Amino acid sequence: MPLPIVDYKFCPQCGKPLLSVDFSGQHRPHCPDCSFVFWGNFSLGVGGVVWHEGKVLLVQRAHNPGKGNWTIPGGYVEQDEQIAVAITREIREETGIHAKPLSVIALRDRPGEKHDAYIVFLLEYLGGTLQGEPEEVSDLGFFTLEECENLPIAQLSLSVIKASRTLLIPTSPGFLPQTGVKMIGGDQAILYQISKEPE
């Protein structure tokens, strides 16, 4: 469930009234006491393409937006969660299927009142039993590409499904997690980079 859009009037850290201050040409709420800056409203979602025996995993949305439409499974990333962990959790919760991320294959960028980014993974099917989460999913299953094209399916889902078919080869290109790259954030920070093979 996405968080509501917040319009800060008072500092969420110290409670003092916020002032509008220019940061590189953009006015932003700023606290003169503790230096808090409100940088904007953002949400991060993930979706997953899981193929099994020539069919792809889809869920039918049980609520709006898009109630009744078929989509790849996915959801929102928690604040303290890596995106690869989020997509495996979302797929397991929504469908009962266990899967392993192979590569980032798409990014939808949607600026607006809330800047919404959606990262799509290609995942390897590991097992499990199809079982939908009733609050999220009204139906689910594995479908051939031809069957997908005849469903009321979200165009983003259909597009990434079609694109993912060319990636189902032993050395799939894509944005793969890299190891041995030291970054700020310690063990929680992961770099996804174009590569033919995971390092």
From TrEMBL:
<dbReference type="InterPro" id="IPR015797">
    <property type="entry name" value="NUDIX_hydrolase-like_dom_sf"/>
</dbReference>
<keyword id="KW-0460">Magnesium</keyword>
<dbReference type="InterPro" id="IPR020476">
    <property type="entry name" value="Nudix_hydrolase"/>
</dbReference>
<dbReference type="GO" id="GO:0016787">
    <property type="term" value="F:hydrolase activity"/>
</dbReference>
<dbReference type="InterPro" id="IPR020084">
    <property type="entry name" value="NUDIX_hydrolase_CS"/>
</dbReference>
<feature type="domain" description="Nudix hydrolase">
    <location>
        <begin position="41"/>
        <end position="165"/>
    </location>
</feature>
<dbReference type="Pfam" id="PF00293">
    <property type="entry name" value="NUDIX"/>
</dbReference>
<protein>
    <recommendedName>
        <fullName>Nudix hydrolase domain-containing protein</fullName>
    </recommendedName>
</protein>
<comment type="similarity">
    <text>Belongs to the Nudix hydrolase family.</text>
</comment>
<dbReference type="InterPro" id="IPR000086">
    <property type="entry name" value="NUDIX_hydrolase_dom"/>
</dbReference>
<keyword id="KW-0378">Hydrolase</keyword>
